[in-house]
Design brief:
homodimer, 452 residues, alpha+beta, BirA Bifunctional Protein, domain 2, Rossmann fold, 9-stranded mixed β-sheet, 5-stranded mixed β-sheet
Amino acid sequence: MALRVALKTPKGTKDWCHADIRLRDHIFATIAAVFAAHGAVPLDTPVFERSEILAGKYGQDAKLIYNLQDQGGELCSLRYDLTVPFARWLAMNNILQIKRYHIAKVYRRDQPAIAKGRLREFYQCDFDIAGSFDPMIPDAEIIKILCKVLADLDIGSFTVKLNHRKLLDGIFQICGVPDSLIRPISSALPWDAVRNEMILEKGLDPLVADKIASYVKLKGGHDLLEILERDPAITSNPSASAALKDLGLLFNYLAALSILDKISFDLSLARGLDYYTGIIYEAVTQASQDDSIGSVAAGGRYDDLVGMFANKPNTIVPCVGISIGVERVFSILKSRTPIIDQNSVQVYVMAFGGGKDWTGFIAERLSICNILWDAGIKAELLYKNKPKPRPQFEAAERGKIPLAVILGQSEYPNGQVRVKKLGLKLDSDQGDLVNIGDLVQYLLKTLTELKL
Amino acid sequence: MALRVALKTPKGTKDWCHADIRLRDHIFATIAAVFAAHGAVPLDTPVFERSEILAGKYGQDAKLIYNLQDQGGELCSLRYDLTVPFARWLAMNNILQIKRYHIAKVYRRDQPAIAKGRLREFYQCDFDIAGSFDPMIPDAEIIKILCKVLADLDIGSFTVKLNHRKLLDGIFQICGVPDSLIRPISSALPWDAVRNEMILEKGLDPLVADKIASYVKLKGGHDLLEILERDPAITSNPSASAALKDLGLLFNYLAALSILDKISFDLSLARGLDYYTGIIYEAVTQASQDDSIGSVAAGGRYDDLVGMFANKPNTIVPCVGISIGVERVFSILKSRTPIIDQNSVQVYVMAFGGGKDWTGFIAERLSICNILWDAGIKAELLYKNKPKPRPQFEAAERGKIPLAVILGQSEYPNGQVRVKKLGLKLDSDQGDLVNIGDLVQYLLKTLTELKL
């Protein structure tokens, strides 16, 4: 039986323990509260999908999908994001309009860098709005939600980089990129890397690349939009022109939402995923840039994904969404604030006594604990038949437990216990003698006074 | 792109939506509160483990493990339960003593029966106590926790079936079962099924089977323990005798915890998993028996599992735990109480107006929503540039939203909006005119009055 195995979690995965879970759950709760404040309902999908659901959705990143072994039956893969399962769910249930959020783990066979919050199993918090609406109103609300989440998380200064897939497509057309290279060129990588790959491997004309470079270096706010609106090459391209119309509306709405100062209209922003069709955005924080963590959130509009699944022809369920990367947020918040690990237990139930006839009050301690547990009071005891005082105090101290209930050898048979405040360094304090019948009431009162 | 795929979740899995998630989260919160009241800390492990971690832990059930495809690198499998990952975590971190809880999905390639809460992907809520302690004290606390959880879930009347692995082993020895058949015979299946398999396929002597049957039909409480203590065949068997000593202590502690009436000492109870070494238990409810759902929770003592992983020789970290099956609890609670789906949004922001010069106040509505969102008030608006009143009221009604803030064509330019209570069927009520600068305060006061 004593076969030795390598004691580790799979590459790129980690265990979450104690205080880290408290910080993680604080992040989840903060994000979910913002999502719910905007009317979203929660959804949870299986951790794996039928493989054909994921096929053709992720472009070159598809090689990062985890597949389950073929053990008979369906071929399945771990979900790569929460967006494709959402689209599958919408199509499967013929839902044409909804706001939903989903907080769950996703899986990518990428090169991990755990300290930077880049893992193979990691959490995403997604909010999406599905439905046919007047243009750019839900898009603006999503960006507001992103800003509110990052502000509520107190993550420090941040910028939302904004671009439009149709503007990128238009620019590539204007610059003379062949149609077959437009999707591959819309990579999430930095332009220099994409440029080299395109020229060396895909045969892109370097002059075309230089023309693209003159566009993708542009950054700004509403001013950049005005510059592009005066560029006849852009305005005469139908795709780019439609994008400028969207962006004009969006800037108006972002002004109404008082978040223009957070926005950087950045033509170098490209999202790698195939399914985006409209605006795209990424949030970077000062902290994430300093630590090369990359973006803490990203998303965009994907109007055709649900239609790819729908059984009824010509079903269009336009969507726009945001995905927040919990591990990256976690890395930033944890590096800033030390997390205090604390037990939430309120009372340690102890026995004091000695001599060979002393029973150790184990059944009696269980009985007192039982009264406290049934009253909703959080209590622990030492799992020892005849405990000495010191290990009981030490256990209470380790758990930062504020109160002790002590069953004394002479007092307990008279129906009384002592209640003692811990951590006061007053060894002379013997605590208060309390009748067992009054114990719950006494403890609840004391815990209220101590604000515990 | 319009490749048609089968729109379904993988066999034995399901999506969780809206109101179901609310009930599920209520179950999680109820269970976690009990676990925390007993001093447990939360743990979360990756959804898959290195396959060798799972190997040799599940006996005949190992065929139900989901493996990941070999895509290079480590061989991994989806977790089958939360117990083996816990033992791996204890050994990996050299933790000798802890109480931890873990609420997460586990995976079994079993025949699903979704209506009965039997799925391939399902939730378990586990609480375990690890550490070397005086005997049966943590075991008693675990059974108390189980009873408290089921009571707090308000699941109806229930019974905790109790048995001891060493008592079963002893009985099999006494009856003359060959050593090689003792593990296979300790199946979770009903005795009749095991008996037939043992006789027909494994060559067990039918007389031996009859002798076993005379024991495994026994059920009772403390009285049954007394009967067994008078059986010289039992008391002269070291394994069975050790079990009786454990059970004697346990019954004392269960009496101190006032839960003897919930216990059925049942010699037919066997748990299939290889790793149990001491007491074992399962909770069945009246509802779960009526609907053939089976047990809603199960667990036991497993003293050797951590040692199978530990790098240091002779490391022993005895453990005892309980696992609660959320889907089965969910089935029972959902069938009993209709769940009301409700939106938690508090305010619907509307525009009233008309005529060709009317803008529809879309930027203005976003701006009012923005003020409410920033004040923590949950608000929605219709994503339409020039909405008519009816679809706005209908949307608010669908979401059961209690208040409307109305931007009127003539009032808004004067810095005022109307606040109207919805759902009152008083169409004559025009609501109150409120200055925009006072709106947040007014709404917070109204929501407090309405207890929302």
